[in-house]
TrEMBL record:
IF-3 binds to the 30S ribosomal subunit and shifts the equilibrium between 70S ribosomes and their 50S and 30S subunits in favor of the free subunits, thus enhancing the availability of 30S subunits on which protein synthesis initiation begins. Its main location: cytoplasm. Residues 149-164 have a biased composition (Low complexity). The keyword Cytoplasm applies. The lineage of its organism: Bacteria, Pseudomonadati, Nitrospirota, Nitrospiria, Nitrospirales. It is found in: Cytoplasm. Keywords: Cytoplasm, Initiation factor, Protein biosynthesis. Residues 165-175 have a biased composition (Basic and acidic residues). Residues 67-150 form the Translation initiation factor 3 C-terminal domain. GO terms for biological process: ribosome disassembly. This is Translation initiation factor IF-3. It comes from Leptospirillum ferriphilum.
Amino acid sequence: MIGPEGEQLGIFPTHVAIKKAEEQGFDLVEVSPTAKPPVCKMMDFGKYMYEQSKKVHAMKQHQKSGQIKEVKFRPHINEHDLETKINYVQRFLEDGNKAKISMMFRGREMIHTEVGKELLQKIIVATEGVAVLEVPPRMEGSNMTMTLAPATTQGKTGKTAGTGEKTDESGPGKS
């Protein structure tokens, strides 16, 4: 049996251990049931559960959950507007979020969906180092959508190793 402060109190029969814990206003919690003899601890179980839930809540707060950010395009978009929206997509991806790209077609634009596909390919090429194509372009009603995910850090380490090799090769050449 372990006391509320973590000190060892000794080996007691179960009914005596429960009685001692109740006298001091604590609960008797079995910590290690497989040990010989089983190990129990005197503690305020409600307070313990509250602290555990607080720890879990704090862990969830510190986790960064990736969100899906949507950017909408039209088939006949000006070049500068396209670049601006591509910059938004890149910023979302660098922040660790996924980007959903929607190409909206209205009326007679539905006949020329290849224009939208070409724009989506431009976006894929422009975000090549930052993004990975997660869901390829596909039609959903009058919209064509695709999803880009942030590039993994493995690709970045590969590039770093490659630049390190170039530095090693150019170092001896300079001397």
